[in-house]
Write a structure and sequence with these properties.
By secondary structure, this protein is mostly helical. It has six helices and two strands.
Length: 192
């Protein structure tokens, strides 16, 4: 993905995780036909394409908010290279999202996936979002990831550091890829 610029350790780790997310999604959908991608294990559970579309729905506002936050932080000169320093709230949020999930959350209305979305379209957007995310990681290099704060797109009252937001979003990606893997592992699932 993207630039070969040397990033700080935290961003390089985020970048590695982002590549892993993309690779996992690509291998998950490989060989799936349209019906398999839309198959639900139960009426109240999401299909593979809905899990991925939920990640797209989440990325849309977060990528926009991240771009604005990075631009503003650069303009204000909020630079630094401190070691990771997560607050208790950020650590809690990230921990609750890591798979396998220990608690269910209802997706905010803003992040509800389209019903039975077309996998090809979903994956094009998914790849595009990961490319933009990679660009934002590069653009964030040199910023003080723990001093720069951003309001969460779904929970406007909550602010977390830029470093926490990246970790939160990566955990969220892993959670829903795990969810999609459970669909594929279901005994009634068929790839074609």
């Amino acid at each position: 993905m993207g630039s070969t610029e040397k990033l700080c350790a935290e961003l390089e780790n985020n970048r590695r995780q982002l590549r892993e997310v993309l690779q996992k999604a690509e291998s998950l959908v490989e060989g799936l036909d349209a019906d398999a991608a839309r198959w639900r294990p139960a009426p109240d559970r999401w299909s593979v394409s809905e899990c991925l579309d939920h990640l797209n729905a989440t990325s849309r506002p977060y990528l926009s908010d991240l771009a604005a936050t990075v631009e503003q932080a650069k303009a204000r000169g909020v630079f630094g290279d401190r070691p990771p320093k997560r607050g208790w709230l950020g650590s809690w949020f990230i921990g609750t999202l890591e798979p396998p999930p220990t608690r269910a959350f209802k997706a905010p209305k803003l992040f509800i996936p389209a019903q039975a979305p077309e996998l090809t379209t979903v994956m094009e957007e998914f790849r595009s979002h990961k490319k933009r995310w990679d660009e934002l990681l590069v653009e964030s290099n040199g910023l003080d990831l723990w001093k720069v704060k951003m309001r969460m797109s779904a929970f406007k009252l909550i602010k977390m550091s830029l470093g926490e937001i990246y970790a939160f979003l990566l955990a969220h990606e892993r959670r829903h890829l795990w969810q999609a893997e459970q669909v594929v592992a279901h005994p009634e699932f068929s790839r074609r």
